[in-house]
Write the C-alpha cells for this entry.
Amino acid sequence: MATKYQFSFIVPLANLEECKAAIFAAGAGSYPGEGNYTEACWTVLNGIGQFRPGATANPHIGTVGELETLEEARVMTLCVGEDIARAAVAALKKAHPYEEPAYAVVKLEDF
C-alpha cells in the first residue's frame, strides 16, 4: 500500500483555481479505491495573509518595504505516494504567484 500524505498550501484567492488545477494535474486529490474520486480537496476561504517584502524581494503583490495584507485561501488534499506528493509540490511552485509559497506535506498513518 502506498504511503499517503496530507498536502496543504496557502494561496491568494485570485490564484486559487489555477493552483488547484496544477496540483490535480500532478495527481494530488485522487483517492484510491472503488469510488475513484479525483480533484478532492478541502478549501477554507477568506483568511487574511500578511507580509512585508524585504529589500531584495521581487513581490508579485505588494511593494518592497511596505506591509501587505490580502485575502487568501488554504487548500488541503491527499497525495497517495511520495512521487505524487513531490509532483504536486513542484506543480504548486510553478503555478503559485509567490516567490516562496507556504505549504506543508505531512506523512499520514493508516490505522
